[in-house]
Every structure is written in C-alpha cells, then in structure tokens.
Amino acid sequence: DAKTTQPPSMDCAEGRAANLPCNHSTISGNEYVYWYRQIHSQGPQYIIHGLKNNETNEMASLIITEDRKSSTLILPHATLRDTAVYYCIVRVRAGANSKLTFGKGITLSVRP
Amino acid sequence: ETGVTQSPTHLIKTRGQQVTLRCSSQSGHNTVSWYQQALGQGPQFIFQYYREEENGRGNFPPRFSGLQFPNYSSELNVNALELDDSALYLCASSSGQAEQYFGPGTRLTVT
Known about the structure:
The complex is a heterodimer.
Chain A: E1 9-13, E2 18-23, E3 32-38, E4 45-50, E5 55-56, E6 61-64, E7 70-75, E8 84-91, E9 106-111
Parallel strand pairs in A: 1-9
Antiparallel strand pairs in A: 2-7, 3-4, 3-8, 5-6, 6-7, 8-9
Chain B: E1 5-7, E2 10-13, E3 19-24, E4 31-37, E5 44-50, E6 53-57, E7 64-68, E8 74-78, E9 87-94, E10 101-102, E11 106-110
Parallel strand pairs in B: 2-11
Antiparallel strand pairs in B: 1-3, 3-8, 4-5, 4-9, 5-6, 7-8, 9-10, 9-11
C-alpha cells in the first residue's frame, strides 16, 4: 500500500505556479520523498527527491515540512505540457525494500 | 547518453501463452526494476535485478520471472498468460538504489 495521500486532482492556469500537496505522516527517518509524473501512455518521469531539506532543480522545487509529514511539489510556471498524473512516493534508498510504491497520484490539468 | 528502451512496443497474446519482454538499461546503470500498470492504476512493482541477481520481489506469482544479463539488460517472462495480465509493463533502470528512470513501456493485451 502507498504510504502517501494526495488529492485526486487539481488544475491551474498556464504560466502560474502549480503547488501539488502530499501527506506522508508515517514516513520513517530513512525514507526519502520522491516525485514522478506520468504523461498519458508514457513511462513515469523522475522529477525530484529529498530527505529533509528543500530541493530545487530545473523542473521543480520540493518543499518538505520540518516534521517531514508532508511536502509540496512546486512547478513554478506551469505549461500545457505539464498536464499529467503526479505521484508522490516515499522510499528507502537501500536494500530490497527500495522499490517505488505508487499510489493513484494527483491529476494536474493545466488550462490555457 | 541512451535512455531506457523497451521492446516490443505493443503485442497481443492469447490466454495460456507465454511472453518475453525486453529492456535495455540506461548507460552506466546496473539495476533494473519491472512494474505492471493496469489501466487507470499506478504502476505495481514486480521485481528488481541488481548485477544479475533478483533483489526484491512484489506480490506477483512465480509465473512472472526475469533475467538480467551481464550488460545489465533484462527480460521479463510471463507464463500461462491470463486476461488480467493485460497491462502496460514498465522497466526502470538505476545505478544501485539511486533514482529510477523509466522506459516507454510495452503494452500487452491478452485475449
């Protein structure tokens, strides 16, 4: 079972920031927060991950609360091509339990 | 740098048959994971191979088996196909337990 909770869907206007929330209240100290997205009928695409500090890369920013029980993925200037299902996943990075456990994700619709 | 590739793109099989799906990992990656994605669901972990050995398995029956070759490419074999095996099969490669990068998937239809 997925260890994260995400709303089923959200939308935002093109050019605006998209803030995608994720709850992971039972996260363990050695588990990272990962975000992937899946555009229709394609393989999931890695976006970003973090342990406790906020992270930023060319695609997005990841904000993790101090207690690590929730996080937010920020797409700073959403485009129509960002319309996809976004998965928030918690995962250890060692051993046989390091698989990715996907939930249902959140469907982001970017409107013109 | 070549990404993860999978073959074939699509295939159709009959119930009871066997199928082999193939995956070439990204350059420099030594770990391959396989996932099954049914329509409308998130991907479900099947198993992972690290340096040619199985390194973790999800809740799938033994008729799902795999191989990893010395060049780190991999195969997923499914015997005695059932209708419920119809799905998108995804392969992901990584360097150890670092970020996994997915291929485009193989769409399997069992009739």
